[in-house]
Design a protein that fits this description.
- One of its GO terms (molecular function) is hydrolase activity.
- Pfam families: Glyco_hydro_1.
- By secondary structure, this protein is of the alpha/beta class.
- It has one domain: Alpha-Beta Barrel (TIM Barrel).
- Helix content is 39%, strand content 13%.
- The chain is built from 15 helices and 14 strands.
- The protein has an 8-stranded parallel beta barrel, surrounded by 6 helices. It has a 4-stranded mixed beta sheet with strand order 6-8-10-9.
- A hairpin with a 3-residue loop joins β9 and β10.
- α8 runs antiparallel to α9, α9 crosses α12 and α10 crosses α12.
- The protein is globular.
- The model has no long low-confidence stretch (mean pLDDT 97).
- The structure holds 6-O-phosphono-beta-D-glucopyranose (BG6).
- The site of 6-O-phosphono-beta-D-glucopyranose has 15 residues, from loops.
Length: 482
Amino acid sequence: MYFEKSKGFPKDFLWGSASAAYQVEGGWDADGKGVSNWDKFVRIPGKTFKATTGDKAVDHYHRYKEDVKLMAEMGLKTYRFSIAWTRIYPNGNGEVNEAGLQFYDDLINELLKYGIEPMVTVYHWDMPQALEEQYHGWENRQIVDDYVNYAKTLFERYGDRVHYWITMNEQNIFTSFGWLKGMHPPGKENDEKMFYQVNHHANMAHAKTVLALKEMYPDAKVGASFAYSPCYGYDRKPENAMAKADYDDLQNYWWMDIYAYGRYPRSAWAYLESRGVAPQMEEGDAKILKKAAALVDFMGVNYYQTCVAEYNDINGVGMTNTMNTTGEKGTAQVQGVPGLYKNPANDFLPTTDWDWTIDPMGIRMCCRDITSRYDLPVVISENGLGAFDKVEDGKIHDPYRIAYLKAHIEELKKACDDGCRVLAYCTWSYTDLLSWLNGYQKRYGFVYVDREEDENSGTLNRIPKDSYYWYKKVIETNGEEL
Ligand code: BG6
């Protein structure tokens, strides 16, 4: 759609930035914190780039005041961060750890002191290892109760001050990397049956958490953050258009329909049933999912890239566990599901050094699709560019990041003109941080952190990059000056 004049962003638009506990905090065993599945996984040789861990990360646990002060100077309206389950319940259930609760109390209060709205992610992938040992974590339905118990503890403690809650971060990623690709804990490969079962457990945990929150704080705003890659059909060949429909049902709507409608897409379900991998649902589940969906306030979207779907022969490519984690451009491989689709590169679009497609218009596509399919407001909970940054004379010039963010914000503005209700835009990330599989060299932040892959390297000093000052202006002008 074309509009002669843009209405711009809403007045109360939340300009934000995001992080996740494991990627920034460090202090992996500080003050009674328990061991998480990631604390364990990163110690398995070959799992992460140059064996990097989040043991120290960027030490946000000890430097949060300095980080929040920089946010305040920038004028940030909201800061999205996650809570480490293992700081609250070191064993996943049982005894609560007061020191852990206190840390997030302090962080929230520090944000509020400067008028920054905390946006809290309940779960950003770091599950207590004790639950893995007790009953295999997400594989066992028991986790639903433990998850809800943990979430309720957060609502009780912080619900008076936190108005925006995100239940799950990228359920589609942690489950596919954990049970299909073997690249996240628990490191299983091609276990399709369990993959769908685990997802059902996560869906129930999400739904029951939404219900619990709304009972305690009916006015709180809640949603899940989905890693949404809108998909283009390869060309006008009908088989390729059908490949796109298959991709959407199995890779996008499979999750978003649950969050927004409380049901699985029919054709995806039929396909999984025919192959004997549909999840087992218990009596009453469908009702709970529907009830929660009716109470969800927004769709959280982590947007990085679009993809292409092309028909994939039954003998065609499958899913591989290879990925460009080194930043050597051009090393990514085409992946697919035999008989359905494969995802070739889009030669109309440039890519990052890690072979992620750069497609600003995709962010508008996300908003448009969510608006017409679900009629829900959108929170962009992540969007950003992972790049190599260099310090020159104590400064970091990152025009590539500014160009990336500018182009995406321009498209987001168009989405607002299109009538999409966009509530917030959080860049990934605020400070540089650990990129799970790609180490510290893949940097996303507005604030540079002096550290390399080696745990003992760097001063951990913070230096605002050029993009920091640029975003400050964007916030000041409510997105008018880009
Ligand atoms: C999202 C995650 O998948 O993308 C973040 O929610 C992650 O935790 C971000 O860091 C960027 O991905 P990566 O692999 O480049 O770190």
